[in-house]
Amino acid sequence: MDSFKWIISDTIVMTKRGLLRYVRLPELLVFSTIQPVMFMLLFAYVFGGAIDTPGLNYIDYLVPGILAQTIIFGSTVTGVGLAQDLSKGMTDRFHSLPMARSALLAGRTISDMIRNFWTLMLMLVVGLLIGFRFQDGFFHAAEAILLILLLGLAFSWISASIGLAVKDPETVQVAGFIWLFPLVFASSVFVPVETMPDFLKAFAQNSPVTLTVDAVRALSLGGDLKVDIWPVLAWLGGIIAIFSTISVRLYMRRT
Amino acid sequence: MGRIHIGSESGPKTAITVKNANKSYGTVLALRDVDLDVEAGTIMALLGPNGAGKTTLVRVLTTLTRPDSGELTVGGYDVTRNPAAVRTVIGLAGQSAAIDETLTGRENLVMVGRLYHLDKATAKSRAAKLLDQFELTDAGGRVAKTYSGGMRRRLDLAASLVGEPDILFLDEPTTGLDPRSRLDLWETIQGLVNSGVTVLLTTQYLEEADYLADRIAVIDDGQIIAEGTPDELKSMVGGDVLELRVSDRSQTDAAVTALSGIGSGDIQGDQETGRITVPVSDGTAFVAQVIRELDRKDIQISDFNLRRPSLDEVFLTLTGKSTPDNESNDENPKKSRFSRKRNS
Description:
Order of helices and strands of chain B: EEEHEEHEHHHEHEHEEHEHEEHEHH
Order of helices and strands of chain A: HHHHHHHHHHHH
Strand order of the largest sheet of chain B: 6-7-8-3-9-10
Oligomer: heterodimer
Largest sheet of chain B: 6 strands, mixed
């Protein structure tokens, strides 16, 4: 029981450390606040008028998608942070301390989730200012936000695996980011997938990003939209199970 | 699991014991049958070139890596059977300063204290005490990113002391430091041992090992090839080296002849550079004599210094080969000027 208490305590210490990074590193703060807001305004007012979203106005269509996009891109920070710890000898220091080893990974992913929550709230405020409204009640809105946080957790674990496997922070930055572009843009994040050519449509319709964004959209807007939650939970649960296992393995192998 | 006391209550206690330790990475044998004992309250220096196995031994002893075989205990705890207990009695300062640059100096120390499972108040008071001890109090509120190299090292060392360890591991603690910061750090390390801490440090510099250590273990190619007090080691290697350069390189041979009989070993002259080395057991006694002899023959010198044997020279004496870093240059006459008869 005592050791369980210390696991919690160590995880809290490491979570605080992770959160302080966001306060102290201006580039991370910009990455997780100003840039997403700019993206939202850009799509709402520059591209939005040219995108046809049958039955929905574009702001309502956009906001659930851009929340997902922001959280997915932001997940790359998890891997970069872990790789930095490895390359700077931080991990060695932590491993020589009588702390719970799991706290390093847990603290990093939890602090990234908290950061995601803050970013989501900020973006929702901007979304409300430009006309977005949750239209299906408080509980569905809360479910929508939880689903996005779960999406963030899933991609954080993928990012953690990349960070622990690749090790070099600069390479992790690129390796963790580049494959996200096709995944995020070839999805229903910004545009309805129906307009895409057939081969891309087949990919986009089944990607976890599209499935999650469609579910979040349905929870946010209600009306005729159908919430198809189980495939989303299967995808995200599967990603978390697989990549947290890989991360822990990689992390232990390095000790 | 209780702590195993080694030695009698009155006699010296062994803080670190290593018996028959082996560790390989793939086909590379990083440690080969290493035996080493470190007495409590003393400084042991592991001296060796890059890739000799110094860091591997530190990693194995600090539970970062598992040995393939061998009996290793730290503070009486077995490193493979009871690593968690080992971690409660050790402090580690690795090769790169392991500090979080986005936290302030104080936050770094408090964080480490909390991870040693100190309560908040104790972690804070220890952080304040260590900042003071390492002259970082003024910088304590600044993020570590703004620290100089010397300050980072001091903070790193402070972090390794937060848990008030019995046994401290320092992996090349002064690498990359300017001479002033290095001297400061040496004094700090000495102070720690005076307060009862056992230190195992690794270094590439004989000078550093000589200054700090009670005993020195020379490690090469994963093996301990010599172990003893600095004096014992130096007497194995010979004393200091007088190094001078003649202004006119054509006089190199004349100078070597003029100096023959002085010093404690073979005098080497290098025609190409005009550099002459004279091994001496007690350098200062020979300085005047060397100058006088050269003056008598009217040989001008442009450079003159007295130094400790380099790691390269220690290695040459102990192993008959150059340090691994220099091996490819073995044919180079500039290196061979260091050569000295092994039985001299």
